Amino acid sequence: MSKKFIQRLGLKDKLLALIVPLLVLAAWQGAVSQKLCSDLILTPPLTLLNTLVELAQSGDLTLNILASLKRVMIGFLLGGTSGFVLGILMALSPFLNSIFGPLIKALQQVPEFAWMPLIIMFLGIDESAKYFFVAIGAFYPMVLNTYQGVSGVPEKYHELARVFDYKSFRYLFKVIIPSALPSIITGIRLSLGLSWMFVVGAELFGSDSGVGYLMTWGRAVFQIDLVMAGLILVGVIGFAMNVLLEIAEKRFLLWREPVDGRPV
Amino acid sequence: MPNNKGTLQIRNLSKSFIVDNNPLQILNDINLTVHSGAFVTIVGSSGCGKTTLLRIMLGLENHYTGEALIDGKQIIGPGSDRGIVFQDHRLLPWLTVGENVAFGLDKLKRKEKKLLVDEHLKLVGLNGFESAYPSQLSGGMAQRVAIARALASKPEILLLDEPLGALDALTRMYMQQELERLWLLEKITMIMVTHDIDEAIYLSDKVVIMSSRPGVIKKIIDVPLSRPRDRASSDFTRIKAEILEEFHLGTEYPFAYAI
């Protein structure tokens, strides 16, 4: 691989980012091999890898990941969509903004997990409780970023819409939403990120499937490797979702970057 | 095609804004008639209300006294009979050049739209650029796209609000030639606001001179020169001197030679 190619892919930065994790893994493996620490407390990385492979082979891995992803998607769609719609309405109507704005800001101060007892009282610990819990997390970043994006649409575009007689839905979909899109996409990224955090949280509280369940189960039967495997899974999947969204963002917002005169 | 459309009449028009609870007179008793197919320029120092006057013609400003008529009908808002080119090109950055030109053609069928877009991009010399994004264009190119967008919906009157103000001097002169070419070709009324006196003389049949506080029309000067105009001709210079005189910028010996 030529130097130039590595530079173009930004591989250098990516390799640099791996240095610390690899050093930690090496020290970790070394500490356990040298009996500096009991391998009952600190599972060696190789054992961890083994656990992950076993989980994958038994099908438990896919099953639990899918269970978590399903909850994320449903919760995110519920919370994200309502945040998106309310954000637009609030930005377009000062009346609705006066009604909902302060309320949302106040409710946002409530830590997400403080909702848990209430949710359990009303919805129990079944799936709908988890959807709702995730939806709350997904709601705030979406409503705030959509609101910010739509209220930030420059006056000159509103004027242009008036000149060319764009009204109601045509106005919304052809002018307002595209103009607010960078902010909306930021909202989606934050919203999905929080959804993923909260689904694991919800699964820790009471669940019979999911990545979070894997970890509580591991703790209950004192299988530290399972707990750690869960942690790694949560990190890797969250990271992967973020990378995918970044790629999508670049695609959608192609127009933001001048592409040195080359026709696209 | 003989066409008498695109006549603009302003009668006894006055407008004031409320600033700090006090009314501030912006335009005072404006009377102006622009005949069909004419090129008229409005010049004046900043703050004389020339842009406000243009916005009234466009239909974006509504509260005023007096009348603003197009072909005898009161202006009640923006309409497809008028096109506008703003000083900032105001292209939508998320749309390609082609989609921007088609922005005012949303109600047409895809095929008709494509024809009009092609026709007007060719008109401004940008065929082949339809899939580029505005961020990839130079200032002059972007402004040409904005002109194509305004012309694509076939207006009777094209309003131009300092359209070349943000361009460098050479691009600007080139674009003036382009505007003249388009005006001769399309045979529509064009009304332009500018603060560049050379530009006004080069392009217009009539130069409307406004002065500020409150904005009034000070004088309307005819430019009876044949086209294309020579910016260095003595007639051109004479008219320029006449206009500068209105701004108290005249020299005593406008024809002095430097040796």
Give an account of the 3D structure.
Chain A is mainly alpha-helical. Helices cover 80% and strands 0% of the residues of chain A. Chain A has a single domain, classed as MetI-like fold (Orthogonal Bundle), CATH 1.10.3720. Residues 259-264 of chain A have low confidence and may be disordered. Chain B is an alpha/beta fold. Chain B is built from seven helices and ten strands. The A-B interface holds A 156-157, 159-160, 162-166, 170, 174-175, 178-179, 181, 254-259, 261-264 and B 58, 60, 77-80, 84, 86, 88, 90, 92-96, 103-104, 106, 129, 131-136, 153.
Characteristics of this structure?
heterodimer, A: 264 residues, 0% strand, globular, B: six-stranded mixed sheet, four-stranded antiparallel sheet, 7 helices, 10 strands
Structural topology:
The complex is a heterodimer of chains A (264) and B (259).
Chain A lengths: L2 H7 L1 H23 L11 H14 L1 H33 L1 H15 L7 H8 L3 H25 L3 H9 L4 H38 L5 H10 L3 H29 L12
Helix pairs in contact in A: 3-11, 4-5, 4-7, 4-9, 4-10, 6-7, 7-9, 9-10, 9-11, 10-11
Chain B lengths: L7 E12 L2 E13 L4 E5 L6 H9 L6 E6 L2 E2 L7 E4 L11 H5 L8 H14 L15 H14 L4 E5 L7 H18 L2 E6 L2 H7 L2 E6 L4 E7 L11 H13 L13
Parallel strand pairs in B: 3-8, 3-9, 6-7, 7-8
Antiparallel strand pairs in B: 1-2, 1-4, 4-5, 9-10
Helix pairs in contact in B: 3-4, 6-7
The rounded distance between the terminal residues' Cα atoms of chain A is 28 Å
- End-to-end Cα distance of chain B, whole Å, is 51 Å
Q: In terms of structural class, how would the helical and strand content of chain B be classed?
A: alpha/beta
Q: What series of H and E elements makes up the topology of chain A?
A: HHHHHHHHHHH
Number of helices of chain B: 7
DSSP, total strands of chain A: 0
Largest sheet of chain B: 6 strands, mixed
What's the SSE pattern of chain B?
EEEHEEEHHHEHEHEEH
From the alpha carbons, calculate the radius of gyration of chain B and give it in angstroms: 19 Å
User: Could you tell me the radius of gyration of chain A in angstroms?
Assistant: 23 Å
Helix/strand structural class of chain A: mainly alpha
User: Helicity range of the residues of chain A?
Assistant: over 70%
